[in-house]
Amino acid sequence: MARAGAATLEAASCLGVLRSVVLRVPRLPLAAVVSVALAAPCALAAERLPSDALFLPPDLYRPAAAPLPSDDEGAAQWLARAEQALAQGRVAETLRCAAAALACDPEQPQARRLLAQQRVGRRWAGGHAARLLAAGRQWHPQWGWVGPEHLPQYEAGLRPLGRRWISAEEDAARHAAIADGWTVRTDNFQVTTNESPAAAVELASRLEGVYLLWLQRFGDYALTPEQLRKRWDGDQASGYRRQPFRVVYHRSRAEYNQALRVHQPQIDITLGIYFDHLRQCHFFAGDDQDPGTLRHEATHQFFQESGRSARRAAAVANAWALEGVACYCESLAPLAFAGELRGSTVWRLGGAEAGRLPAARQRRLRDGYYVALAELAELGMTELQARPDLPPLYSQAAGLATFFVEGQGGRYREAFVELLRQIYAGRDEPGTLERLSGESYRELDRQYEQYLREAEPFVPAERPVAGSAAGGSVREGASPIANGPGFEGE
């Protein structure tokens, strides 16, 4: 959870550019596919993209403005890369390449199937939405799921109550309390709010995108190569969660504080929170809503609920890893891109100048602040949260997570994801990361410092991304007072 008044670190704008190298080869058999470092999506070669760019294709929740001609060749190139990644058992990379293929051809069925999406009419969605669409319901950006026969009433300002219709004002009064709020269900989320149905639709749609991007980086945590191989071979996965991620979206900060103080006495200084014992994320509407906090808490929820998890994860060790990876995911940001990606958007997660990494570099290299991994691994969540140096320690945790995910070409990513899996399953101990990485903590400390010294920022274009903080100064990130996954409430 993030502390109000201590803003998350803003990096300079990450601006997307496309790599000028485009392979012009037909799709090859798996044995003949060569490792391509940065085959550009589609035939757009004017700018460059970072090699680990993520892609958010258009779908039911993020429709494209208009259909565009497809680039079958570009899509085939990305699918060849997906096939190669799948043969290597790399789930997240397979999903990333499938999403990139859809930036070339949004109708590519193999790529859609890898993402567990199916087509109903002119829309692509998971199984929950597909069933509602097949039954004649429509997804509306203001009201969520609506029968088309009821659209005239909705547009006239009426809302259903049983078999009769009431005014929108009466309907708002009925949903004024969060316990009676509107509920909107998407393939993977269930959002309850007393703000408005449109607010629930917007938040659920946004979280669907965050989840798909998370899978492109951490899909190996949630899915197995065998599951993706079945999709590749033609099986249609359900594409939805039978137990959705539950999110409660309060109308105001005051109502958020009042509703949650029973669970967290210091709720007033938070911007969002995930309770593992409730299996709920809580946020509030208004100007104080922070996208970084939303991604931080959603990350806790994704990891906690995407596998078999113990209560009070990281209670006795390795708490830094849970908070570090959540801080790392705060850095998720769109990249500006002048070319056409056929309704897709391009995103960046991590990087040398993103999120809290500049603060981590400053603390380690200029200020000499660093808690050795051997000491850090001994800290459970309670001990971590009680430390007086919590803000710089959270910056260090974010820096370490970035190193283990991205450093040395992702050398330690598999070990780090397995560490997270063991933490959430309650099977970890202080020395788990040493065992998984095959390196001593002293050696990992050395490599981390070297990574900070050598990491080069992604060179941005000249125009800023809307909503980003171009030229922002390096600031210490926010730090939670208690981690949702390890917090039991009172």
Tell me the layout of helices and strands.
Elements (H helix, E strand, L loop, with lengths): L53 E3 L15 H16 L3 H14 L4 H6 L3 E3 L2 E3 L1 H8 L3 E3 L3 E3 L4 H5 L2 E4 L2 E4 H7 L7 E4 L3 E5 L3 H26 L2 H8 L12 E6 L2 H8 L12 E3 L4 E5 L6 H15 L13 H11 L3 E2 L10 E4 L8 H10 L6 H4 L4 H6 L3 H21 L2 H13 L6 H6 L3 H14 L36
Parallel strand pairs: 9-10, 10-12
Antiparallel strand pairs: 1-14, 2-3, 4-5, 6-7, 8-9, 11-12, 13-14
Helix pairs in contact: 1-2, 2-7, 7-10, 10-11, 11-15, 12-15, 15-16
Structure report:
With 490 residues, this protein is an alpha+beta fold. The chain has one domain. Strands 8-9-10-12-11 form a five-stranded mixed sheet. A three-stranded antiparallel sheet has the order 1-14-13. A two-stranded antiparallel sheet has the order 2-3. Strand 6 and strand 7 form a beta hairpin. The longest helix is centred in the middle third of the chain and has 26 residues. The protein is globular and about 70 Å long. The two termini are 17 Å apart. The relative contact order is 0.15.
Question: Which descriptors would you attach to this protein?
Answer:
single chain, 490 residues, alpha+beta
